[in-house]
Amino acid sequence: MSVSIGAIRTLLLENIQPARGRHGWHGGATPLGAVRGMSVGTALWRPTPERKCIWELVLHIAYWKYAVRRRLEGGKAPRFPRSPANFPDLPEPADQAAWDADRALLKTEHERLLEVVAEIPPSQYGRRVQSGKRWSTGEMILGIAQHDAWHTGQIVMMKRLATPAPRLPSPAARRSSS
After folding, report:
1. What pTM did the predictor assign?
2. Fewest CB within 10 A of the end CB: N or C in the chain?
3. Is 93 helix (H, G, I), strand (E, B) or coil?
4. CA 121 → CA 82, 105, 113, distances in Å?
5. What is the pLDDT of residue 24?
């Protein structure tokens, strides 16, 4: 079986951003889809006090999209607009305007990464990234897709935990209503 270079490029791109009307291979949303319409309260919710909240994960995902893009471009991008780098601090105040701005940052970094990946010649996929340590271009692209899938799963789970489920009638009440 022979696979075309174009098919490999499409596969890598669709692991970062599934084609319109499709979910990721894991059956779920992208990071952008997972936080679409999410309230500030849900974004700030923590499963326990020492764990990250969804908002912190959004900033972390945005940072790593930026970091991979920067490495793929050879280190040319300006510094990430938030700090510290890996898990940036939440803004003060952590309000709706700041949440909207950070979701926009995620979207911008996502779109920039897609643009860079789409321009990389497939002949470069097996070559080490110049500003990377030990990973090839193809491994970096696949790695950021896996990173997105991992943290998107966390976000979806946290969103479900943060949103109280509707109360179901007790078994006795269900029996009496039938």
Report:
1. 0.85
2. N
3. coil
4. 31, 27, 15
5. 63
Q: How many distinct structural domains can be found in the chain?
A: 1
Nearest to 15 by CA among 1, 26, 4: 26
Over the stretch 21-56, which tens digit does the pLDDT of each residue have? 766 655 567 899 899 999 999 999 999 999 999 999
Question: Which residue segment(s) compose the domain that 13 sits in?
Answer: 5-163
CATH number of residue 45's parent domain: 1.20.120
DSSP string of 108-175?
HHHHHHHHHHHHS-GGGTTSBPTTSSS-BHHHHHHHHHHHHHHHHHHHHHHHHHHSPPPPPPPHHHHH
d(CA 160, CA 80): 30
CA distance 113 to 128: 18
Domain contains 85: yes
Examine residue 140 and state whether it is found in any structural domain, yes or no.
yes
> Is residue 144 assigned to a domain?
yes
The answer as to whether 14 is a domain residue is yes
Is the pLDDT at 7 greater than 80? The verdict is no
